[in-house]
Amino acid sequence: MITILAGGTGSVKLVRGLVSQTNDLRIISNVGDNYWLYGLYVCPDIDTILYGLADLLDYERGWGIRKDTFGFLRQMEVFGEDTWFRIGDRDAALHLTRTNMLKNGKNLSDITNWLCEKFAISAKIIPVTDNTVETRLNTDKGDLHLQEYWVKYRGQPKILGLEYVGAEKARANPDAINAIHDAELVIIAPGNPLTSIGPILSIKGIRKELSKSKRKVVAVSPIIGKNVISGPAAKYMEAAGIEVSAYGLSKMYGDVASHLVIDSSDKLQTKRIQSLGMKIYETKIKMKNKQAENDLASFILKQVRP
Ligand code: FO1
Is the pLDDT of residue 134 over 90? Predict the structure, then answer.
């Protein structure tokens, strides 16, 4: 059994690749960017995996359903509501269903299992916790939810700090702990280390279990040279004073992973990273198409030997 820690669009590509190579995959999903809107509970990282594995994801945007319509949102605008967070019509149906199930006493894990069944997804998606953890940014425009910072203000405000509110008290999902404990290999997806993977690692039970299992944990870099393959990770890393490079990443994951997959073009960093005690694997990490997703997944499963 293989387990992957995932969040955001960088992760879903590798998740898809892994599904093509193994039939026993557990996906521990970030919940830090979950967001309440119009009384609906939106879980972007869970939904990106659901849509990705159901082959519904809009890959151009990296979120939502391909060819979705936005009639619901247009009507909300007519009613004078803010519409900077673009929820599609079919996407809204999912959020409404999930919110009703929550109101009827189901927890996020049960609901996510049910959604996997509905989308005929055989991999198991495990929200890292059923409690609320929110990634919030302290900025020069005030305290903002991640979605407000990134979508509403387009990542413009100056970041003064980042916090995973609720992480202290959140109870790790027991299925997530078991998924780490029982796995042959645990993969940290090439997601944003601060806003996609960070909230997962901020939950004490998870970090402890990963540290115990460190010999079988491999992280995949989302960075090539000084650039992040996609998304705003560099912005968050710079704000946190972390070097934007595979080396900077290895320092962040040093206590939870003992293997790191980097891009072949980052060879020159290998020695520096090895000095931190990590085993390095070099390959092409950019997943431009399905073949590249499968190739990276296959490389990890064949080459990384705990
Ligand atoms: N990202 C945007 O940049 N603009 C949007 O309007 C937007 C809407 C949206 C709706 C549902 C959903 O699941 C995700 C959505 N995202 C949108 C993506 C989201 O903000 C982030 O990419 C993730 O939270 C990062 O993992």
Answer: yes
